[in-house]
Amino acid sequence: MKLAVKLVAGLLMAVFLYVAFTFAQVWRAARADQARPAEAIVVFGTAQYNGVPSPVLAARLDHAIALYKRDLAPVIVVTGGNQPGDRFTEATASANYLIQRGVPDDDVLREVSGTSSWQSLAAAANFLDERAIDDVLLVSDPFHSLRIRAMASELGLDGRSSPTKTSPIQGMSEARYMARETVAVAVGRVIGFRRQASIEGVVRSRA
Fold this sequence. Notes:
Blueprint: H1 2-30, E1 40-43, E2 48-49, E3 52-53, H2 55-69, E4 76-79, H3 90-100, E5 108-111, H4 117-130, E6 135-139, H5 145-154, E7 158-161, H6 171-191, H7 193-206
Parallel strand pairs: 1-4, 1-6, 4-5, 6-7
Antiparallel strand pairs: 2-3
């Protein structure tokens, strides 16, 4: 009995240390900007309102524009599908925002089917592969950095994160996202991010 208790205690301690270590990595990645020359900038989509990017999405797009104007990549990939009832996809709203701010339409590639970070990046990876592109800068909120880099690696992309510094998600809201990302990364590393996304999709469809 004592041996069983020790084994359980040891397992719980190992899980705690693993999660704590993962949180430290998520926090460190959130504060690192890996911007450098690449073949494409990939912007992760999030909410849009009738074709107008939400403040969170606008912050990501503004950062992508800054990277593009630094000539760090020749194209920007915008991602994200739509929710039931939406007239616009996240990618379409993002593309229009970029074009209105001087990015040529020819330099904007659209991924319009994804409803999760994994789906969007996987779909983008497919059409980037057709263009022989695998070296990408990943733009999202800081708390998202570690997971999107891990997903990119699983998809065969050489991805570096360059998080926006102007996200309206701050303070306690950011801390909650950090905690959620810690769990997502910790689980994804064990079972694979592709499988994790599949499980989450099934859960959402049954909710």
